[in-house]
């Protein structure tokens, strides 16, 4: 039987959209969308919300989850990285539950339209001989076609060379959407996420890939949530 650790990171000091993790999106705290998606797949004992904020803790516990301890201050800064947060969560999880998880599932609360169906489908792609399954969408900014860099003379050149003339003939390029990361615990202990080599994609569509980082992202998410009754 799978022993998972689900980590939902929710720092209190968000700057793009202040207080966004508990801000109401279509009448519901943003973080509740992700918690409810996780609860649709896993028991509460496996779900850990990593936060440094008392306010977030109180909103999270409305869902029935318990947060037995807050994230330490050194993991609540702008420079704290996901790997350190995951390793701290892993350490605390093993300490409290006396088990080593088989897999770590990172679910960011800024992806409100990722649901339990997506999590279940992504989990089917995971095996313990890979580093990670990660959710993606097909990028609209294809580096073979619309992305350019400046050369030494300040002239634009394509980011990736290609002789293809039609956009539809270009190789597909995938963009991480930030919704789901299913990680091998051994891999995260041994190396940085950016150093993973055995990574499998789980594709999502543009709407369910919405990731809230700016006020404009929030306005668009609010529109989608109201239109689709999320």
From TrEMBL:
<dbReference type="GO" id="GO:0016779">
    <property type="term" value="F:nucleotidyltransferase activity"/>
</dbReference>
<keyword id="KW-0808">Transferase</keyword>
<dbReference type="InterPro" id="IPR050793">
    <property type="entry name" value="CMP-NeuNAc_synthase"/>
</dbReference>
<dbReference type="Pfam" id="PF02348">
    <property type="entry name" value="CTP_transf_3"/>
</dbReference>
<keyword id="KW-0548">Nucleotidyltransferase</keyword>
<dbReference type="InterPro" id="IPR029044">
    <property type="entry name" value="Nucleotide-diphossugar_trans"/>
</dbReference>
<dbReference type="InterPro" id="IPR003329">
    <property type="entry name" value="Cytidylyl_trans"/>
</dbReference>
<protein>
    <submittedName>
        <fullName>Cytidylyltransferase domain-containing protein</fullName>
    </submittedName>
</protein>
């Amino acid at each position: 039987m799978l022993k998972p650790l689900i980590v939902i990171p929710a720092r209190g000091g968000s700057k793009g959209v202040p207080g966004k993790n508990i801000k109401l999106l279509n009448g519901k705290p943003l973080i509740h969308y992700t918690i409810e998606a996780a609860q649709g797949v896993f028991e509460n004992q496996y779900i850990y919300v990593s936060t440094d904020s008392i306010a977030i803790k109180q909103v999270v516990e409305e869902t029935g989850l318990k947060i037995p301890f807050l994230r330490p201050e050194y993991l609540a800064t702008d420079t704290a990285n996901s790997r350190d947060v995951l390793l701290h969560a892993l350490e605390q999880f093993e300490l409290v539950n006396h088990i080593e998880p088989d897999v770590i599932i990172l679910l960011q609360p800024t992806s409100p339209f990722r649901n339990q169906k997506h999590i279940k489908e992504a989990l089917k792609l995971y095996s313990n001989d890979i580093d990670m399954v990660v959710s993606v969408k097909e990028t609209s900014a294809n580096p073979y076609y619309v992305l350019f860099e400046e050369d030494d003379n300040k002239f634009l050149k394509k980011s990736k060379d290609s002789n293809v003339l039609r956009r539809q003939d270009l190789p597909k390029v995938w963009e991480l959407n930030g919704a789901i990361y299913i990680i091998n615990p051994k891999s995260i202990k041994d190396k940085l996420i950016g150093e993973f080599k055995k990574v499998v994609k789980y594709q999502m569509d543009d709407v369910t890939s919405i990731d809230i980082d700016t006020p404009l992202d929030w306005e668009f998410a609010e529109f989608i949530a109201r239109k689709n009754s999320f």
